[in-house]
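User: Here's a protein and a ligand (L5K734KM). What would the complex look like?
Assistant: Let me lay out the input and then the predicted complex.
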Amino acid sequence: MPLSEKQLIEIRRNLHQIPEIGMEEFETSTQLREYISRMPQDFLQVKTWKTATLVRVQGKNQSKTIGYRTDIDGLPVTEQTGLPFASKHAGRMHACGHDIHMTVALGVLSYFAENQPACNLLFLFQPSEEILSGGMQVYQSGVMDEWMPDEIYAFHDNPQLPAGTIGCRQGTLFAGTCEIHATFIGKSGHAAFPHQANDMVVAGAAFVNQIQTIVSRNVDPIQSGVVTLGHFEAGTTGNVIAGQCQIDGTIRALTQENNLLIQKRVRQIAEGIAQAFDCEVKLELNQGGYYPVENNDHTTKAFMDYMQANDQVDFVETAPAMTGEDFGYLLSKIPGTMFWVGVESPYSLHSEFLSPKEEAIQKAVTTIVGYLEHRQKDVFTATY
Ligand SMILES: CC(=O)N[C@@H](CCC[C@H](N)C(=O)O)C(=O)O
């Protein structure tokens, strides 16, 4: 029997308690592999790469493969939901809902493990979506090569949509991102003798302020961009001048062109601050595989047509979002579609209070199984 709603909720709660950060999902991948091993194995083949797990369901006709990806990592966030099944891992939380993503993937897989699909299905349980571009790493490792899908799908949970509602759009769904890591190095000293030191709180603060001009002065106002500096650390106490300042952040833009423009300006401003404050700067800009998430026209039309025609599905066409996703890398290699599933919460993704509604799980499983059943018929003649 495919996993029941009760079993799915139990699985989700188990996974929710053991969040691990990117490329360290050892307990999570062990649990996932255990759940997969309990399914009927007649059509299943499993491969692993580091903490990634790939499951191929052999179709009746093996000439085409549809991919379905879930991410499996958590965040370095301390959970404050007060839930009885809250994280048991100190300082780690599934604050982006990847526990929901994994559970839905297991639910869909459990259906096809018993109902042989018309074409092959590849389920990718991918590590490290939040950092280090796990999807890109899996792709580049070659482990997918012999099972390469012809098209691929994935979803992200969305607290702003009602539980189970599907959201999607043609074109760009999510921004391309780029991590900023800047270290300003000056000279520490006594608070009373600033002229003998080189204060990196002041240099860092100037960098933060200058960065605000990029979106307001350099990006075409008809387009958009975000530069968020979420981490600023300098000094130890009030009467010691800080000799070093660490600033970390992220760039978001809906086109690669704007992402590169913002990266260029961040670099110029960092160098300018170093010159102005006579200090050293070490700057790292890491885009990795966080390309803009560009939905393929053909798979997205098929997906949206199905959702709009299905009375059982609540579907909304959504605007692009500034969230990032390394699924953007996979979509740059394989045609496919990313979509949202509503989980209805007053708290945002990455909030320590996020508590997705669990009724979204069964709804999402039913909708995705329905779409994959439908799509299998067309994939043999699909053009992209
Ligand atoms: C869905 C989601 O929240 N994804 C992350 C991806 C982060 C990419 C990278 N580490 C960065 O910070 O730029 C997001 O923050 O949007």
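Summary: The mean pLDDT is 98.
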